[in-house]
From TrEMBL:
Record-given protein name: SAM-dependent MidA family methyltransferase
Keywords: Methyltransferase, Transferase
Keyword Iron among UniProt keywords: no
GO BP of this protein: methylation
Taxonomy, superkingdom: Bacteria
UniProt keyword annotation of Lipid metabolism present: no
GO molecular function annotations of the record: protein-arginine omega-N symmetric methyltransferase activity
Length: 371
């Protein structure tokens, strides 16, 4: 047990106060102050557990930089803009975005960079990657970022926010929990009593789900914060994550260690636990607070609309044959719809203050703001 202190602690909590809801288990796995996965390590890249789009190619961050510039122009080119990144990894995406933005001195001068990051290991990586960037600060939460017109980038941020899982039994929907089996191992179970009137809140598609079906939901707090911020202070947010366009039943709670899927109940705190993002729920919550929603569209469509093919061609022209091959492989990885590609699995959603009717890559191409 000694090499698994968090497992030991979770079992003790379950023994003391009964089965633990999935959301609480996920929260402890990721954010436990001592043993949480995101508090203690750098999970990215080949040596880590997974690779994100900015680590695949510089093109991803560069295009998000140019997207930021187009939003800034639509905002009327304010002389001051906060560029906020949630969960900025190693700082790779921000470095690439800023490189692309240097070609626009009026915007580059207007920028104040805010990195929202709780992991001290990654904070150090970010400050090394972004050494020499002026007007940059770090925060534990977006609540700590001062007011002002903002562009907010959230790549693979929402998938690690804890989910509630509900399981349908004969007599209604029960909160799914983690309990201890007779052999002393963790297993899934269900709360003994159904959650009263839970079906009233369900999306129509899920109400007819069969017994045994699992439905996942996240509290709307985080998306409402972003939506309220851009609604009141001007600007836009871009959310990129893997997930589904429509709210539906399905168990997507998963763990990844060393680039392969693993049992999420096996080594808490030692693997990345995530769940798919429900983009319909995000859009609904943002609209509920009066922000304008753009998309969602697939990542492949978004990147093509904002010019990734042109950017790849320009880079390949100047590159050696080996590097040109790498660029071509990265382009496929980011935009392809097959199993190995991120193009259709990942979705992109824009949220803005209501006056921004069309946003690059997300609005109807023929007539911007075709909602």
């Amino acid at each position: 047990m000694t090499d698994q202190p968090l497992l030991h602690e979770i079992k003790a909590l379950i023994k003391a106060s009964g089965p633990m809801p999935v959301w609480r288990y996920m929260e402890l796995c990721l954010m436990h102050p001592r043993y949480g996965y995101y508090v203690s390590r750098d999970p990215l890249g080949r040596e880590g557990d997974f690779t994100t789009a900015p680590e695949v190619s510089q093109m991803f961050g560069e295009l998000l930089g140019l997207w930021t510039a187009s939003v800034w122009k639509q905002m009327g080119s304010p002389q001051f803009l906060r560029l906020i990144e949630l969960g900025p990894g190693r700082g790779t995406m921000m470095a690439d975005a800023l490189r692309a933005l240097r070609v626009l001195p009026p915007l580059y001068q207007a920028l104040h960079i805010h990195m929202v990051e709780v992991n001290p290991v990654l904070r150090e990586r970010q400050s090394a990657t972004l050494a020499g960037v002026r007007n940059i600060s770090w925060h534990d939460s977006i609540d700590d970022v001062p007011e002002g017109p903002s562009v907010i980038l959230a790549n693979e941020y929402f998938d690690v926010l804890p989910i509630h899982q509900m399981v349908r039994l004969e007599n209604g929907w029960h909160e799914r929990v983690i309990e201890i089996d007779p052999n002393g191992k963790l297993q899934f179970g269900a709360a003994s009593e159904p959650t009263p009137r839970f079906e009233v809140l369900l999306p129509p598609l899920v109400r007819a789900a069969p017994v045994g079906a699992v439905f996942e939901w996240r509290p709307d707090g985080e998306i409402m914060k972003l939506a309220t911020r851009v609604r009141d202070q001007d600007g836009a947010a871009l959310i990129i994550d893997y997930g589904h366009l429509r709210s539906d039943a399905g168990d997507t709670f998963q763990a990844i260690a060393r680039h392969t899927f693993t049992d999420p109940l096996k080594a808490p705190g030692q693997a990345d636990v995530t769940a798919h993002v429900d983009f319909q729920a995000l859009a609904r919550a943002a609209e509920d607070v009066g922000a304008r929603v753009h998309g969602p569209v697939t990542q492949g469509d978004f990147l093509k609309r904002v010019g990734i093919d042109t950017r790849a061609a320009a880079l390949m022209q100047k590159a050696t044959p080996e590097v040109a091959t790498d660029i071509s492989v990265a382009l496929k990885r980011l935009t392809d719809t097959g199993r190995s590609g991120m193009g259709s699995m990942f979705k992109v959603l824009g949220i803005s203050e209501p006056r921004l009717t069309g946003i690059a890559g997300l609005s109807d191409l023929e007539h911007a703001g075709g909602h």
